[in-house]
């Protein structure tokens, strides 16, 4: 059915052959293959049956000219490679995104943008409608002008996490405030009286929101907020270790600490061991993520579960939904629930 070229190699099935086998015109076959809704179910079935029988594969370059779509979606992560490949949070989000991309026959392009502006400009230059249909942005920091630059180029964007100070953005986030508030409330209910926190970076909305949840939990029981009980980390294990050491130097009477990420909580556990303190005997510890490492830490870490794979799925579905509508300009947002997972550290 496919025929052969003069040199004997098989000839790739054409759109015309698909149309002839399905008993429709070439334009109708093209509309079916490009996902147009303006065809009947019977016609769509006939064309897709012909596609399967012939083994027809659309010419992506020609298809892009017609649809003005590349078939590619960029995932832009504003963190160094060490964090991307060492922290389970990113792997979980990427898994969720990848599943949706596979379901919709889309290509996922990973772009790392981090560091000085001159280094960030090179990968950012790739992000245009000529290369990708839209972009998913993860781990954005305050003051980053990349989202606005991409919008100015006509790209549809969805953020993972509420971007700080960006009212035009569409985003999917978890309930950072509620999750942190519940974690600190748990420590207070266990009878802890001097509860410290290792907060996330203040230039990231997750860092701000989890600190807000800490403050709200204290306020709910009439406890004053004390800056001496706050140390700021960077969401890494080393950052948590350093922040815990700083807290112990400031307040050696603390008996609990809420840590705004699991990697930082692991660093805090190490610092507490090195100082001779027992967990949870002397100091109770609660993290945030419910990463795989939390269940096997010593002791196992009480932590806030955030559904990272679902976060990735929701991001991807929101972006593809906007693209299907022609690139929706009205900002959209989704907040996913969190839950506290009790283990031995508290």
Quick description:
The chain has 14 helices and 12 strands. By secondary structure, the chain is an alpha/beta fold.
Q: How large a portion of the residues is in β-strands, by DSSP E?
A: 15-25%
CATH fold name of the largest domain: Rossmann fold
Terminal CA distance reads: 69 Å
Q: What number of domains?
A: 3
Helix segment count?
A: 14
Indicate the radius of gyration in whole angstroms.
Answer: 25 Å
Secondary-structure class: alpha/beta
Series of secondary-structure elements, N-terminal to C-terminal: HHHHEHHEHEHEEHEHEHEHEHEHEE
Query: What spatial order of strands do you see in the largest sheet?
Result: 2-1-3-4-5-11
Shape: elongated
Q: How many E strands? A: 12
Helicity, in percent? 40-55%
Low-confidence stretches: 61-67
Major sheet details: 6 strands, parallel
CATH superfamily of the largest domain: Response regulator
Quick one: CATH class of the largest domain? Alpha Beta
- CATH architecture assignment of the largest domain: 3-Layer(aba) Sandwich
Mean pLDDT: 88
Domain HTH lacI-type: 13-67
InterPro entries: HTH_LacI (IPR000843), LacI/GalR-like_sensor (IPR046335), Lambda_DNA-bd_dom_sf (IPR010982), Peripla_BP_I (IPR028082)
GO molecular function: DNA-binding transcription factor activity; transcription cis-regulatory region binding
Protein name: LacI family transcriptional regulator
Keywords:
346 residues; alpha/beta; 434 Repressor (Amino-terminal Domain); Rossmann fold; 3 domains; six-stranded mixed β-sheet; 16% strand
């Amino acid at each position: 059915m496919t025929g052969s070229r003069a040199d004997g190699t098989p000839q790739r099935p054409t759109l015309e052959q698909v149309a002839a086998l399905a008993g429709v015109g070439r334009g109708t076959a093209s509309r079916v293959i490009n996902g147009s809704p303006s065809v009947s179910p019977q016609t769509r079935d006939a064309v897709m049956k012909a596609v399967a029988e012939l083994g027809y594969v659309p010419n992506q370059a020609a298809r892009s000219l017609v649809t003005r779509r590349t078939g590619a979606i960029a995932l832009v992560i504003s963190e160094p490679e060490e964090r991307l490949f060492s922290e389970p949070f990113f792997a979980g989000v990427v898994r969720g995104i990848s599943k949706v991309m596979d379901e919709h026959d889309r290509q996922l392009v990973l772009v790392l943008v981090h560091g000085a502006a001159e280094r960030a400009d090179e990968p950012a230059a790739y992000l245009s409608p000529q290369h990708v249909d839209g972009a998913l942005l993860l781990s954005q920091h305050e003051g980053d002008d990349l989202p606005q630059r991409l919008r100015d180029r006509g790209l549809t964007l969805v953020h993972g996490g509420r971007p700080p100070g960006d009212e035009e953005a569409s985003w999917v986030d978890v309930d950072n405030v509620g999750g942190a508030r519940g974690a600190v409330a748990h420590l207070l209910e266990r009878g802890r009286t001097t509860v410290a926190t290792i907060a996330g970076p203040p230039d990231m909305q997750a860092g701000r929101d989890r600190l807000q949840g800490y403050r709200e939990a204290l306020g709910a029981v009439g406890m004053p907020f004390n800056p001496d009980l706050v140390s700021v980390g960077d969401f890494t294990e080393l950052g948590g270790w350093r922040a815990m050491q700083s807290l112990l130097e400031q307040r050696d009477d603390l008996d609990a600490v809420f840590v705004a990420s699991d990697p930082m909580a692991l660093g805090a556990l190490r610092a507490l061991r090195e100082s001779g303190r027992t967990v949870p005997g002397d100091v109770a510890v609660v993290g945030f993520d419910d990463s795989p490492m939390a269940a096997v830490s010593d002791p196992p870490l009480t932590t806030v579960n955030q559904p990272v794979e679902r976060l990735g799925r929701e991001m991807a579905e929101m972006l593809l939904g906007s693209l299907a509508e022609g690139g929706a300009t009205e900002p959209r947002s989704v907040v996913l629930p969190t839950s506290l997972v009790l283990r031995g550290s508290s």
